[in-house]
């Protein structure tokens, strides 16, 4: 049984968006190329790079440019940029000309202090004249459709998502992603899906919902509650590329299948390999830890397994540990088997 979504106006340059429902949010230190590739293998339809500073791109920072490593990437991919100066973002848009991406997204939602204190990210929700100038400057320079991600407002006393959404639509933004919290909430409390539903009904262009979707049930609940065109997954994807497979099951009207423990270990080991290939040793091992910390939650012995994995900076050793526990179908590995035999 299909779930009703609002009919929307889709730009002729993005006809593929009609069938795109499952997106990965741009997240610093998380949505690098190895993780996007893993998520795509499990049903993600569009992934975003880690968000990149427009000024960093403009001044040629090597670390910043590595964040937009999209060459040769398959299927739909977006690049998100942030900043406070219209000329910086316009310059970054020019630098993207001819580069592999399908949309250029503007970050008006990041609540991080280091971004906000420079008047970037969600700080722009409190400065709409500057936000509008940024949008106009980037659209004028980009050869790709331009999209935007926002929050509901700066704080509960300045909830202005409807005004912002209409401004973005009028300026030529192709779709709006909205996280259902204010900047002052950051990631505390619950995302307000009523606000997302209201924006869906307010705009003619697609609205992508974001916030508190962590599994198939919450994905289906958000769509039914808001009728949003698509859902963008952020923290729910940490160590969990399978969330996109669950979402795909909902889209297909079938019951999601649980992830076998052996598959969890095998894919985690593959993630270690890919991160080390991408970043080298030991940086790749460090990078994958945030995912491994989430992957085994809920299993008996998960804390001990994480301790073993985090005690080494050698990817071969991490992979060996994951292979060991996979064989015993238990995070406690050989120790669990020995304990059961003793009993």
Describe this protein's structure.
This protein has 343 residues and is α/β, with parallel strands linked by helices. The chain has two domains: 15-252, Alpha-Beta Barrel (TIM Barrel), CATH 3.20.20; 261-342, Non-ribosomal Peptide Synthetase Peptidyl Carrier Protein, Chain A (Orthogonal Bundle). The chain contains 15 helices and nine strands. It has helices spanning 33-41, 54-58, 62-66, 86-95, 113-116, 128-141, 161-171, 193-202, 216-226, 243-252, 261-279, 283-295, 302-310, 315-328, 333-342; strands spanning 22-24, 46-48, 52-53, 76-82, 103-108, 146-151, 176-179, 207-210, 230-233. An eight-stranded parallel β-barrel has the order 1-2-4-5-6-7-8-9, surrounded by seven helices. Helix 1 (33-41) packs antiparallel against helix 11 (261-279), helix 4 runs parallel beside helix 6 and helix 11 (261-279) runs antiparallel to helix 14. Mean pLDDT is 94; it is low at 337-343.
Average pLDDT number: 94
Structural class, from secondary structure content?
Answer: alpha/beta
Strand content: 5-15%
Encode the helix/strand succession as letters.
EHEEHHEHEHHEHEHEHEHHHHHH
Poorly predicted runs are: 337-343
Quickly give the CATH architecture of the largest domain: Alpha-Beta Barrel
CATH superfamily of the largest domain: Aldolase class I
Query: Gap between N and C termini, in Å?
Result: 49 Å
Give the beta-strand count.
Answer: 9
CATH class of the largest domain: Alpha Beta
User: What's the helical proportion of residues?
Assistant: 40-55%
Cα-based radius of gyration, to the nearest Å: 21 Å
Q: What's the arrangement of strands in the largest beta sheet?
A: 1-2-4-5-6-7-8-9
């Amino acid at each position: 049984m299909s779930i009703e979504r609002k009919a929307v106006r889709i730009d002729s340059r993005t006809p593929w968006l009609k069938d795109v429902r499952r997106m990965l949010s741009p997240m610093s230190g998380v949505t690098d190329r190895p993780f996007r590739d893993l998520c795509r293998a499990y049903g993600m339809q569009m992934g975003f790079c880690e968000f990149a500073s427009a000024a960093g791109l403009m001044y040629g920072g090597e670390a910043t440019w590595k964040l937009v490593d999209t060459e040769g990437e398959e299927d739909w991919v977006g690049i998100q940029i942030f900043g406070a100066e219209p000329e910086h973002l316009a310059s970054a848009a020019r630098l993207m000309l001819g580069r592999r991406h399908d949309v250029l997204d503007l970050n008006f939602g990041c609540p991080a202090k280091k971004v906000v204190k420079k008047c970037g990210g969600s700080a722009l929700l409190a400065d709409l004249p500057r936000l509008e100038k940024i949008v106009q400057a980037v659209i004028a320079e980009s050869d790709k459709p331009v999209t935007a991600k926002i929050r509901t407002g700066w704080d509960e006393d300045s909830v202005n998502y409807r005004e912002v959404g209409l401004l973005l639509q009028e300026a030529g933004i192709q779709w709006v992603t909205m996280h259902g919290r204010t900047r002052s909430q950051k990631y505390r409390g619950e995302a307000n899906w009523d606000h997302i539903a209201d924006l869906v009904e307010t705009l003619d262009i697609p609205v992508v919902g974001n916030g508190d979707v962590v599994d198939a049930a919450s994905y289906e609940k958000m769509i039914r509650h808001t009728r949003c065109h698509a859902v963008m997954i952020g923290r729910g994807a940490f160590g969990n590329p399978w969330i996109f497979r669950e979402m795909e099951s909902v889209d297909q009207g079938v019951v999601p299948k649980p992830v076998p423990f052996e598959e969890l270990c095998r894919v985690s080991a593959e993630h270690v390999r890919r991160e080390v290939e991408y970043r080298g040793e030991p940086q790749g091992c460090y990078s994958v830890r945030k995912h491994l910390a989430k992957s085994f939650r809920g299993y008996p012995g998960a804390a001990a397994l994480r301790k073993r994995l985090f005690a080494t900076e050698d990817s071969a050793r991490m992979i060996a540990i994951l292979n060991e526990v996979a064989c015993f179908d238990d995070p406690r590995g050989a120790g669990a088997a020995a304990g059961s035999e003793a009993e």
